[in-house]
Amino acid sequence: MTTAVKPRKKQIEQVATNLFKTKGYSATSMRDIAASVGIEAASIYSHINSKEEILHSICFRMANEFLTSINEVLNANDSIIEKFRKTVVAHVDIITGDVAASAVFWNEWRHLSEPALSEFIAMQRQYENTFKSIIEQGVNEGLFEVPSVSFAVMAMLSSLNGIQKWRNYTLPPNELNTAFADIFIKGLLK
Amino acid sequence: MTTAVKPRKKQIEQVATNLFKTKGYSATSMRDIAASVGIEAASIYSHINSKEEILHSICFRMANEFLTSINEVLNANDSIIEKFRKTVVAHVDIITGDVAASAVFWNEWRHLSEPALSEFIAMQRQYENTFKSIIEQGVNEGLFEVPSVSFAVMAMLSSLNGIQKWRNYTLPPNELNTAFADIFIKGLLK
DNA sequence: CCTACCGATCGGTAGG
DNA sequence: CCTACCGATCGGTAGG
Question: Residue A167 pLDDT > 90, yes or no?
Fold first, then answer.
């Protein structure tokens, strides 16, 4: 029986992700990460170049996942309500699929330095704007009624992204995604 | 014309709150705070005992505000929908009333050490449970329909608490509070 | 409120 | 992947 050995680099990133989530990026030292992996701090640098490189990798991987997912939904041939539902479900699935990485993505990106910081913020805005265009279309079709489209997007995203702070999921992931879709579709309907 | 001079201690706390919000508690040094106030780092200690004391003060002040507010609503003689509405409005008002302190309350409390940490978590739970009891009563009266009361509370609170991360309010505070109440009442109604 | 300073810890490097 | 170590910075104190 062979044991699947996780490549060190992946292991370091995973351990770091969990520590970044629990303690925060700044409060997590390279020695914390090394100790969790079971090696010396200096040895980490055989696999990665800096602490920020790990943060960069997590933040941009998640940002790409979110953007890829919303673009797929956008290109499908669905009603606007269905597009909205699919976007919410996909967003929740990405979060529950990797809660630790989502927490880092949402809470620790501010510790990126330029130019990565600006790039990351631009990706965030792009995602928000795509989501906004979906709600906007729902309003234009007379299906949704909102006091402000920006408000609706931000209220939604804050709610979904908050999952990573929950002490428990309250519902299993495959019910959580549709529960979110339902509550917000109802909330936005005219 | 006399200029109202802010007592040093209050000034230090306010400056620290803003820095904790922007950079995070761990990444904010006493020297950062001192520089923003315009004094030397060592001079801070004439007014406060430790960095954590500032965090403690912010977190517990906000926790008490939230708990006081929800208990007032609970004791009023209103319909359950009205209680729900008032709770949401009050919650949003507290956040928009001090966004920086709310951000610290929501994002930095994990850096408290025991026994304050456990006390703080208990207060959070108490608030969530009170909110939960309001929704539960709405369900019992046949007004609300939710897949899980815990889910509804957490989805709500995540959404409201997310305000502190918004790049802009999307709506002025006196419309934001009722917009939140409306969207979630609609979302929870049977 | 300042100067001067403490021990601890940080991210990271040299060299093997 | 390790030992040994670097300069910088941390929260905080002594003493005025």
Answer: yes
